[in-house]
Amino acid sequence: MYKNEIKEVAHSSEVKSDYINNSVFRYFLLAFMAGFFVIVGIALSYSAAGIVNVDGKLYGKMAVGLTFSIALGLIYFAGGELFTGNCFVLTVGLLEKAVTIKNTIKLLVVCYLGNLAGSIVSAYIYVKSGAPIGLADTYLLKVAESKTHYPADQLFLRAILCNFIVCLAVWLCYRLQDETAKLIMLFWCIFAFATAGFEHSVANMALFSAALMLPHNEALTLGAVVHNLSWVTLGNIIGGSLFLAVPYWYVSQDKISEDVKVK
Q: What does the pLDDT look like over 134-165, one tens digit per residue?
């Protein structure tokens, strides 16, 4: 089962590998653009949360879940390289021997740095524009500061769950043919992880970048941000590779013909 889709994912990893070998800067730029798209999601979702988060009600969390999917939608349809999704794609490529370990590490590192750079630059523009003041800033800072208090084990486990869901969205884009169906499933997957409060490394890059540039209390430090991103990044890698890529790749290795219907 899923042989064709797995081969398609592996081919994507091979294309990425060839692309970065041809031009590291161009690949970095695609990752940089993804960081910009994520800040669009942050700006929209936390502005919406700021509007509805009144009287201590938890409407803000729901608002973030309902609106943050624009980020992954832009990355998929406009084009960009997202570290978390690549954890799935490159693991499949590695298992299928479409890419080498060296190129897998190279792709992940460059993609991560590109996402980080894009998040920082776009967050700077967003904050300096004054757009979050009085609208998104209060809720954004509240969430950013709360993330600094989670213990390492909770960050790690939330990150596993998060990228399991995000990479499900990526996998479904290979499984589905209709663009509308893809968009619907992207929405549901992002709605699930964002509303549930799971941890996404690139979303956190953008969130923390904006929060550190806004007036914030002393609990939000660079050290606390590094602590969060370290555990969340590790959890995201495990969630996308070990918990999703490996099982689907293993299932695809059966000897049953793709023409045979499995009952």
A: 888 999 999 999 999 999 999 999 999 999 99
Q: Is residue 210 part of a domain?
A: yes
pLDDT digits (tens, 9 = 90+) for 171-196: 999 999 999 999 999 999 999 999 99
Question: The pTM is what?
Answer: 0.93
CA nearest neighbour of 51 among 187, 142, 59: 59
Nearest alpha-carbon partner for 170 in 231, 118, 244 = 244
Tokens of 219: 């609990």
Cα distance between residue 121 and residue 99, in whole Å: 31
Beta strands in 34-116 (DSSP E): none
3-class SS letters over 133-153: CCCCHHHHHHHHHHHCCCCHH
Tell me how far apart the alpha carbons of residues 119 and 38 are, in angstroms, rounded to a whole number: 7
CATH number for the domain including 109?
1.20.1080.10
Decide: 211 and 144 in contact? Cβ < 8 Å: yes
Q: Is residue 157 part of a domain?
A: yes
| Burial class of residue 234 in the structure, from the number of CB atoms within 10 Å of its CB (0-12 exposed, 13-18 middle, 19+ buried) | middle
In a domain, 188, yes or no: yes
Q: Is residue 53 part of a domain?
A: yes
Q: Which domain holds residue 137?
A: 3-251
Residue range 232-249: mean pLDDT, rounded: 97
Our CA dihedral for 25, 226, 13, 261, rounded to 10 degrees, sits at: -160
